[in-house]
Design a protein that fits this description.
There is one protein chain. With 326 residues, the protein is α+β, with helices and mostly antiparallel strands. It contains 8 helices and 15 strands. An 8-stranded mixed sheet has the order 2-3-11-8-13-6-5-4. A 5-stranded antiparallel sheet has the order 1-7-12-9-10, with no helix packed on it. Helix 4 runs antiparallel to helix 5. The protein binds gibberellin A4. Gibberellin A4 binds next to strand 5 and strand 6. The site of gibberellin A4 has 16 residues, from strand 5 and strand 6. Its EC number is 1.14.11.13. It comes from Salvia divinorum. This is gibberellin 2beta-dioxygenase. Pfam families: 2OG-FeII_Oxy, DIOX_N.
Length: 326
Amino acid sequence: MVVHSKPPAMEQLSRPNHRAAFIPLIDLSKPDTKAQLVRACEDFGFFKVVHHGVPADLIRDLEAEALRFFSLPLSVKAQAGPPDPFGYGDKKIGHNGDVGWLEYLLLTTNDSSDYHKLSSIFGHAAEKFRCLVNKYIAAVRKMACEILEMVAEGLRIQQRDAFSKLLMDEQSDSVFRVNHYPPIPGFLESDGRNLIGFGEHTDPQIISVLRSNNISGLQISLKDGRWISVPPDHNSFFINVGDSLQVMTNGRFKSVKHRVVANGSKSRLSMIYFGGPPLSEKIAPLASLMQGEEDSLYKEFTWFEYKKSAYKSKLADNRLGLFEKI
Ligand code: GA4
């Protein structure tokens, strides 16, 4: 990304409501957090986890490699693009006109088909980077599966791995993303307005695991529509419920609307694992969660069909709307 140029025209955000809001905090080292996890998924679709077991040196090393990549000249990084769907992207998000004040890498999680794009510019460092990415994905996937298994227990689903098996499947269609939000040239803290880093959206997958450096920017939308800023914490992870988990719980869990505002003066770096099911998987409410005569709120669809439709949408669209029964 060229940081000397003027930022492109993007939607300006008004300041979020800064009234203190509480974000659920789950300590994964505590013995019984099932009920807390279920509550957080129902009330916020979002929570923070501590004592997560992902090695700090792995996180540090991957972050350093990612920053090294983003510090390369734009003309070099652009050779690892466009993200179709994997590779380097600059400002443009998706294919339908969304833009944000960021640059990013979108990578696969179960093969290395994007590897050639990185190795052409990153030389032998690409091997180190891909190796760290693979280790990191394995660690956060493990944590995501533990969370999903506790959630399944908390929901009294007999099959503990009802959700987690989809992430563990060899064909799991998961994605890994590294976002870099550089400072904004000419940014004035005092003018009270922010620029969109990544526009509001929900994640289509089952669960997302986000970790960032200590620079703020992430905001989530509460059930009453208020936006709140999530204080950054580089030692913790933030978990999002995705659209697919909303459907599998027949709307009991809500996928959380979130966005990132560019910080202005400092670089934000975030890494997100989006845990998704295999393409052929039918996404439908789990039978054991349906009470009495309860009917599915959603039409039947596979993850492939949902994903295809999602990629035709704009970020802020209500993607599940198309699949709701009227
Ligand atoms: C949002 C969640 C993930 O970042 C992502 C995004 C994807 C992309 O950046 O290519 C999408 C977006 C995300 C949802 C709607 C479509 C597709 C951009 C976009 C406008 C990788 C994903 O899976 O869906």
